[in-house]
Amino acid sequence: MAMSAFSASAMLVAAVVAALLCCNAEAQTPVFACDASNATVASYGFCNASASAAARAADLVSRLTLAEKVGFLVDKQAALPRLGIPAYEWWSEALHGVSYVGPGTRFSPLVPGATSFPQPILTAASFNVTLFRAIGEVVSNEARAMHNVGLAGLTFWSPNINIFRDPRWGRGQETPGEDPLLTSKYAVGYVTGLQDAGAGDSLKVAACCKHYTAYDVDNWKGVERYTFNAVVSQQDLDDTFQPPFKSCVIDGNVASVMCSYNQVNGKPTCADKDLLSGVIRGDWKLNGYISSDCDSVDVLYNNQHYTKTPEDAAAISIKAGLDLNCGNFLAQHTVAAVNAGKLSESDVDRAITNNFITLMRLGFFNGDPRKLPFGNLTPKDVCTSANQELARETARQGIVLLKNKGALPLSAKSIKSMAVIGPNANASFTMIGNYEGTPCKYTTPLQGLGANVATVYQPGCTNVGCSGNSLQLDAATKAAASADVTVLVVGADQSIERESLDRTSLLLPGQQPQLVSAVANASRGPCILVIMSGGPFDISFAKASDKIAAILWVGYPGEAGGAAIADVLFGYHNPSGRLPVTWYPESFTKVPMTDMRMRPDNSTGYPGRTYRFYTGETVYAFGDGLSYTSFAHELASAPPKQVAVPLAQGHACLAEECASVEAEGEHCEGLAFDVHLRVQNAGETAGAHAVLLFSSPPSVHNAPAKRLLGFEKVRLEPGQAGVVAFKVDVCKDLSVVDELGNRKVALGSHTLHVGDLKHMLSLKV
């Protein structure tokens, strides 16, 4: 029988409502073990919340068969009904907000989106440790709120703290940049914000620092991460690649470290006992579990052919210190490895014990999370106005002003028309980068600017690839020629740089340079260039052009990116971001991306990498960033000009001249001094200022030309002065890593500098 259009529509609406009610009802039940309403389950020792996590984990392991145990070695943890343990998915992501990447988290009508912060590369440009932690706290609040309604797990495989060694790397956008100290500070701040439960060893959510280690080649000219062997000297490993992970484990007390796909010096990282059991768990005392990157164990067997059999791959990984396999490889091959005598059951017990203890610390085995700490967090705590404002503030603080010939800030009252041009001028999804979640809402650059002045929009190119066929010069130049001011928003998106895709050029993609030049030449008023990207570009032509009045880099600025861009352009916010990476010229692309050496080699013309070692020309330098005001620095109290290192009687360096001494021992205890800087806002505009303290050590052990010792952000009104204090620990801050990977205090002349201010001091024995 045919239905009327009305009744058909009514039934459709009813079906949709029923589906939503069904899904919402299902989503309101969180996943947990040790249900107090089940007396049998609640009586198990592993459900005794008053016992130690180690004792509880031991009790649980003792109740499992080997076949059951291997199910707890993988991310898709199967349910074990006889013990009241539900299925659990370990893989969730929270790189810059709760993400739908990873099967452990999903959005629904109950929680349709979460706060999407800028990509970490822009957040790091704020040089604001307080901000790093605040973002982590918001993300963990939203994660817990989603967990309480069954939409998210408790284990989040973030942050990415690899060093952005090469400007072509597609995943550099996910990182805090090229400097080990900045990356370390970001890691500790963000991880602490995510994890801190405020009581004992408990965890709010469990973070994961990845990808360990020396991982920064994804897919460059056919060289793929799955088979790449990173050849790294011990000096570079301990000086550049390891420090962020060391800080994350020791200072951040992170709950997990993820080993990477690549090999380091011929060994897959997930099968390297020295790197896993030796360093992470032995030297650094990891309080948590070690996970593989997804299918890394499968990769070392099937792609790298590192072992002869899959059982060998399972055995070598677990014995190396791996606890959890993202993927199913260990579930498939571990029992056979044990039966073949390649692995002991006690090795499996150790691994799953680390995993269980992590879940114990998270409260997973404490019953219904809605009755536990953080149980009061609900969907109303996601996408709050305060959280969304923090996303906007983060973007504002990170945006870097690279050039300003007096055009900025703009005056909304004096502008009758603004041309907004470029393939990223009306970007939405592009702004949230990768490892993204559904945002609360978007404010595109066009929307942000249009909220202040009348705009005319022309994309100029249909996409960022900007091929000849997609170039729309006539419409773009006409718009610029008739406007009081032109804002060009160009750059990249995930089609240009992403996981599994590295760049081969540092130039703006396709015909973007032609678009920029044509629009700038046609502009009636000032032309402002905005670069939206993760990695740097060679924009030398724009830097030198008299037709381009200002340049800003805005990273991938998150859900509120357009509003933040407008805030900066119109002067509602004074820019204070600093570049967290070096911007190299296109000629740098002659250097193979696969050459992992950090230090220059003058004999071959190899220029080195990052501001610490690079000897070539730059387009913009690490730490570059302008303000609408000016800041002056002076020493409020001078540090010493000479520091004696009190070596013990009989030390060899007391009898003969040494270039360096050990950076540990009794002579290091209390060996420190303070640097007090007076910083004054010498302009007429209030603003924040990131104070970066660098050191240039003596030329020993191929030391860096300079290195960042510390940074602080201070906000000052016009004419106001403040004092910023740094404590310099001689053995920690004025030491260098020698050729064998040992940290040594460099004797001789050191130079401390902040901006143009310099102070020389001598270390002697």
UniProtKB/TrEMBL annotation:
<keyword id="KW-0326">Glycosidase</keyword>
<dbReference type="GO" id="GO:0046556">
    <property type="term" value="F:alpha-L-arabinofuranosidase activity"/>
</dbReference>
<feature type="domain" description="Fibronectin type III-like">
    <location>
        <begin position="689"/>
        <end position="758"/>
    </location>
</feature>
<keyword id="KW-0964">Secreted</keyword>
<dbReference type="GO" id="GO:0031222">
    <property type="term" value="P:arabinan catabolic process"/>
</dbReference>
<feature type="signal peptide">
    <location>
        <begin position="1"/>
        <end position="27"/>
    </location>
</feature>
<dbReference type="InterPro" id="IPR026891">
    <property type="entry name" value="Fn3-like"/>
</dbReference>
<dbReference type="InterPro" id="IPR001764">
    <property type="entry name" value="Glyco_hydro_3_N"/>
</dbReference>
<dbReference type="GO" id="GO:0009044">
    <property type="term" value="F:xylan 1,4-beta-xylosidase activity"/>
</dbReference>
<dbReference type="InterPro" id="IPR044993">
    <property type="entry name" value="BXL"/>
</dbReference>
<keyword id="KW-0325">Glycoprotein</keyword>
<dbReference type="Pfam" id="PF01915">
    <property type="entry name" value="Glyco_hydro_3_C"/>
</dbReference>
<dbReference type="Pfam" id="PF00933">
    <property type="entry name" value="Glyco_hydro_3"/>
</dbReference>
<dbReference type="InterPro" id="IPR013783">
    <property type="entry name" value="Ig-like_fold"/>
</dbReference>
<dbReference type="InterPro" id="IPR017853">
    <property type="entry name" value="GH"/>
</dbReference>
<dbReference type="InterPro" id="IPR036962">
    <property type="entry name" value="Glyco_hydro_3_N_sf"/>
</dbReference>
<dbReference type="Pfam" id="PF14310">
    <property type="entry name" value="Fn3-like"/>
</dbReference>
<dbReference type="GO" id="GO:0045493">
    <property type="term" value="P:xylan catabolic process"/>
</dbReference>
<dbReference type="InterPro" id="IPR002772">
    <property type="entry name" value="Glyco_hydro_3_C"/>
</dbReference>
<keyword id="KW-0732">Signal</keyword>
<dbReference type="InterPro" id="IPR036881">
    <property type="entry name" value="Glyco_hydro_3_C_sf"/>
</dbReference>
<keyword id="KW-0378">Hydrolase</keyword>
<protein>
    <recommendedName>
        <fullName>Fibronectin type III-like domain-containing protein</fullName>
    </recommendedName>
</protein>
<dbReference type="GO" id="GO:0048046">
    <property type="term" value="C:apoplast"/>
</dbReference>
